[in-house]
């Protein structure tokens, strides 16, 4: 009976050792899984942060393009107005050149008016060329901004696909 009790005690001791080892192994696995979960959560948070920053950048670029387009539309309206004024001055100039004046005084006044109109016309044509250059520069900026927006949009799509 004593031998049997000793064997039984020995078995209990071995089972206790085994249980302790299994518990340690389980705790280590649990700790490892928690560390992996923490790392995965940190990666996901970083990816979300990256997506949010890309989205914010995209929004700012979109606003810049929108502002540039509005400015370009305004400039185009101003350009059309300037074109109309140039056409009116050219017509006035044609009319004044066609009118034959009998009096020398009137002729001198007309020449002065013609010179003033020609000077205004040259100024307006110069302004028109400057505005045209500005419009070309704006168009180029708008195109570059559109390209950047498309690149940013593609990056956001790639990041979203990965997560």
Describe the protein's architecture and organization:
- By secondary structure, this protein is mainly alpha-helical.
- It has helices at about 1-100, 105-160.
- The radius of gyration is 42 Å and the shape is rod-shaped.
- The protein starts with a helix and ends with a helix.
- The model has no long low-confidence stretch (mean pLDDT about 85).
Question: What's this entry about, in short?
Answer:
The protein is mostly helical and 163 residues long.
Could you tell me how far the N terminus lies from the C terminus, measured between alpha carbons in angstroms?
66 Å
The overall pLDDT, averaged over residues, is 83
**Please, how many helices?**
2
Write down the overall geometry: rod-shaped
Low-confidence stretches: none
H/E series, N to C?
HH
Helix content: over 70%
Based on CA atoms alone, the radius of gyration comes out at 42 Å
Strand content: under 5%
**How many beta-strand elements?**
0
Topology diagram in text:
Blueprint: H1 2-98, H2 104-162
Helix pairs in contact: 1-2
Short descriptors:
single chain; 163 residues; mainly alpha; 0% strand
């Amino acid at each position: 009976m004593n031998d049997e009790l000793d064997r039984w005690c020995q078995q209990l001791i071995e089972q206790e050792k085994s249980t302790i080892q299994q518990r340690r192994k389980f705790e280590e696995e649990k700790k490892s899984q928690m560390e992996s979960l923490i790392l995965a959560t940190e990666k996901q948070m970083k990816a979300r942060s990256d997506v949010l920053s890309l989205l914010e950048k995209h929004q700012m670029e979109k606003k810049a393009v929108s502002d540039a387009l509005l400015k370009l539309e305004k400039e185009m309206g101003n350009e059309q107005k300037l074109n109309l004024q140039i056409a009116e001055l050219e017509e006035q100039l044609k009319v004044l050149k066609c009118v034959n004046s009998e009096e020398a005084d009137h002729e001198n006044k007309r020449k002065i008016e013609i010179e003033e109109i020609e000077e205004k016309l040259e100024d307006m044509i110069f302004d028109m060329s400057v505005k045209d250059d500005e419009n070309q520069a704006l168009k180029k900026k708008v195109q570059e901004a559109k390209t950047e927006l498309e690149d940013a949009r593609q990056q956001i799509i790639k990041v979203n696909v990965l997560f």
